[in-house]
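Protein Entry — a single chain follows
Next Lines — sequence and tokenised fold
***
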Amino acid sequence: MTTTDAPTTYGPLQFPGRAGLTLWQFDRARRLGLIPGPDAAGGRWRAPVFDDVLARIDAIRQAVGTMPDVGAVRAEEHLAERFHMTVHSGTAAELARRGHLPVIGAHKGHAVYCGLALANLTDRRKVERASAAGQLHMRDGAAQVLGIRETDLDHLLRAGLLTPAATTRSWWNKRAVVQLYRQADLDRLTRSGRVDWAAVRATPKGHRSPLAALPTQKKPTAGP
């Protein structure tokens, strides 16, 4: 008769597999302090630690929740489905900026958001405000929001009155980087006393923009 003895140590894949946890559940449980760090050589866990976790497995599953950590698109899709509302691109970043949705990592240069916090985000008003403020616009959309020509936008960027909030890749040319502008930044800019908006918007096409007189923002110099 053949018997199979329980392992004396467990590796980072063997541990969650034997405990019935997905890798993201295992990682989150470790992040929350529900599973201690390795206590054996080679980044492994001894059997007593595994047995203790197994005895608490139901409580651990409940604590880590059912939603994995996700990127912005999936987070915004989830919020749109939950609240039955339009959720603009940029909402996840805005929620993070406001302290409602922590960034817990990155994947290929893009933020990854805490799935547990996302699942627990039940305040519709927070999402509505973040969607309104965080909505992202491409160059032409930003100019339209401000009621100016796209060439006027270049002067605002040159003067440092407006900076891109994010970037994305062009649909037509994946090598081209497209700058995106945040709605809240555009709204703030329209209230700026440094710009005579009436004069700018009244300038006909082909005429010099009043924004051309804005001083160019000085680039910070490197330290010694």
About this structure: The first helix runs from residue 14 to 19. The longest strand covers residues 177-182. The radius of gyration is 25 Å. The mean pLDDT is 93.
